[in-house]
Amino acid sequence: MNKTDQKEILKGVSSWNKYANNNLSNDSDWEADLSGVNLRSEKLSFAQLTGADLSNSHLDNADLSYIDASCADFRGASVRNANFSGANLHGADLRDLDLSGLDFSNANLIDAKLDGTNTDGTNFDGASFRRIVIY
Questions:
Q1: Is 93 helix (H, G, I), strand (E, B) or coil?
Q2: Residue 19 neighbours by CB distance under 10 Å
Q3: Cα–Cα distance for residue pair 1/12, rounded to 1 Å
Q4: How many domains does the chain have?
Q5: Which terminus of the chain has fewer CB atoms gathered within 10 Å of its CB, N or C?
Q6: 127 lies in which domain range?
Q7: What is the average per-residue pLDDT within 19-33?
């Protein structure tokens, strides 16, 4: 999916619209600033969020399956009941999040920062974990 298609998909996300014009560049390697944005219950499957700043965002009940959020910053985000199945979170910063009970099946968590996370009951079936960072 190219960036133009991605922007079209995200236009349908109600909380995205007011941020899109100010935060998306025309570069192929854009890094969206979505810090503090309310994306509760939004369907963001297959979204391209490489390097995005999602810190302090509200992602409760969001469908984040198969997103590409490699190197994204999720610190301080609320992710209760979010679905990360099949997500590419290579190098993502998930420090200190409550990930309990979430679905990370088949997710790429290589080089992800997971120190301080609560993973009680989290589904990691088929997930990749090489070189994760836990202190």
A1: strand
A2: 18
A3: 16
A4: 1
A5: C
A6: 1-135
A7: 50
Provide the percentage of residues in the chain whose pLDDT is more than 90: 70
Residues 62-92 have pLDDT tens digits of 999 999 999 999 999 999 999 999 999 999 9
Rounded CA gap, 69 and 75, in Å?
Answer: 13
Do residues 45 and 65 touch, judged by C-beta distance below 8 A? Answer: yes
Per-residue tokens: 62: 């969001």
Q: Where does 46-127 show beta strands of DSSP type E?
A: none
Three-state secondary-structure class, residue 48: strand
Hey, CA dihedral for 68, 43, 78, 98, is it positive or negative?
Answer: negative
Task: Write the CATH number for 78.
Answer: 2.160.20.80
Nearest CA to 77 out of 90, 65, 92, 88 is that of 92
